[in-house]
Automatic annotation (TrEMBL):
It comes from Paracoccus yeei. Transmembrane segments: none annotated. Keywords: DNA-binding, Plasmid, Transcription, Transcription regulation. The keyword Transcription regulation applies. InterPro entries: GntR_C, TF_FadR/GntR_C, Tscrpt_reg_HTH_GntR, WH-like_DNA-bd_sf, WH_DNA-bd_sf. It comes from the Bacteria. SMART domains: FCD, HTH_GNTR. This is GntR family transcriptional regulator. One of its GO terms (molecular function) is DNA-binding transcription factor activity. The keyword Nucleotide-binding does not apply. Residues 11-78 form the HTH gntR-type domain.
Length: 253
């Protein structure tokens, strides 16, 4: 789907513009060191300047953009510590979701639907010839499972806050999967994550809220480990869309 096509499917012009620009920023389609003006972006998205202006303000409020005194906007860069905090926040919120599901009880059909996604992930990871070419399928299923757990709470507040947390660069559950190298350690890491999925679903089934929450929060720490590994492994960041948004810490600081 093209950028122009994608913005014709959302409810309002401002929301469409904000969603598309956010995806372009996180997806690495905009340059981190480039100044962008309302006029440039309006032309790029085939929209008028009014919704673009409102969208830019929204993304500035979210911390993705910074205004330039001379006019226009530049994308913010994020320290690894800031990304780690965003991942921790997402894990805390997802932990709350699964605890509520376990304590309130989740109907059989919905539990089975989520478990079926987990089974598909397990089958994918169980392939003897699993390679980087399988990552897009893994990312889709992983995102579907996480969103399924969130949606199952039927809590508009939690759904909204987790969507906000996921909008932060590299904070979503699948954001750093692209650094997978195909070595034994990386494969083991994905398998550990899938084991977490299985345990969380079982904890929900057996109404063990504290256990479900603890495992889900630990699950988010796998993303923090991925981030740390990406920062230390030559070439790993090059495989992550939008990696130019990650600012290396100043050694002298």
């Amino acid at each position: 789907m093209s950028v122009t096509d994608s913005i014709h499917t959302s409810p309002t012009q401002t929301v469409r513009a904000a969603m598309t620009l956010r995806d372009m920023i996180i997806g690495g389609q905009l340059e981190a060191d480039q100044r962008y003006t309302e006029t440039q972006l309006a032309t790029m998205l085939s929209m008028s300047r009014t919704p673009i202006r409102a969208a830019l303000q929204r993304l500035t409020d979210e911390g993705l953009l910074s205004p330039v005194p001379a006019g226009g906007y530049v994308m913010r860069q994020f320290l690894p510590s800031e990304i780690a905090e965003a991942i921790e926040l997402r894990g805390t919120l997802e932990g709350l979701c699964v605890r509520l599901l376990a304590e309130r009880g989740l109907d059989r059909d919905r539990t089975q639907a989520i478990a079926a996604i987990s089974d598909r992930i397990a089958a994918l990871l169980g392939k003897t010839d699993f390679t980087r070419a399988d990552l897009p399928a893994y990312e889709r299923l992983n995102a579907e499972l996480h969103q399924g757990l969130v949606d199952a709470t039927e809590s508009s507040l939690l759904i909204q806050e987790i969507a906000r947390a996921n909008s932060r660069p590299f904070a979503s559950a699948s954001a750093l999967v692209g650094m997978y190298e195909g070595d034994h350690a990386a494969r083991s890491h994905l398998l550990i994550g899938q084991d977490h999925h299985r345990i969380v679903i079982e904890a929900i089934r057996t109404r063990q809220g504290a256990r479900a929450e603890a495992i889900m929060r630990e699950h988010a720490r796998l993303s923090q480990h991925n981030l740390s590994r990406a920062m230390q492994t030559r070439g790993a960041l090059d495989r992550i869309p939008g990696a130019s948004l990650i600012r290396q810490p100043d050694p002298a600081a």
